[in-house]
């Protein structure tokens, strides 16, 4: 799976509020399917389907402790998505800084509306 496919799978998995809630729960420690299903008004099979999506996206993994198969958070894919998003945060931060400079210039005392308009051109 290439980076674009991994990001697609990650963001598709994160698009569902139930899956985000499951990830939030797993951030506090591993849990069984039954423990994960507890807070939701849905069956264990329905929760299992969400877990499959999260596992395929690489966001969680399943361990084995006898009969129990606890799920745990896998931070690598979230970190990859965060790095991808960081590029866009930096872009927008630079844009906002430029806007701040422009607004400060426009609000500078002694500049008429006409002068401010000419200055931008």
Walk me through this protein's architecture.
The protein has 121 residues and is mainly alpha-helical. It has 2 domains: 3-74, Winged helix-like DNA-binding domain superfamily/Winged helix DNA-binding domain (Arc Repressor Mutant, subunit A); 77-120, no CATH class. The chain contains 6 helices and 2 strands. The chain has a two-stranded antiparallel ribbon. The chain is elongated and about 75 Å long. The mean pLDDT is 86.
SSE string, helices as H and strands as E: HHHHEEHH
Largest sheet: 2 strands, antiparallel
Number of domains: 2
Structure summary, number of beta strands: 2
CATH homologous superfamily caption of the largest domain: Winged helix-like DNA-binding domain superfamily/Winged helix DNA-binding domain
**CATH architecture label name of the largest domain:** Orthogonal Bundle
Distance, first to last CA: 48 Å
User: C-alpha Rg, in Å?
Assistant: 23 Å
- The CATH class name of the largest domain reads Mainly Alpha
Low-confidence stretches: none
Portion in strands:
under 5%
SSE-based structural type: mainly alpha
Task: Name the overall outline.
Answer: elongated
Residue-averaged pLDDT, rounded? 86
CATH topology of the largest domain: Arc Repressor Mutant, subunit A
What is the number of helical segments per DSSP (H or I, 4+ residues)? Answer: 6
Tell me the strand order in the biggest sheet.
Answer: 1-2
Helix content: 55-70%
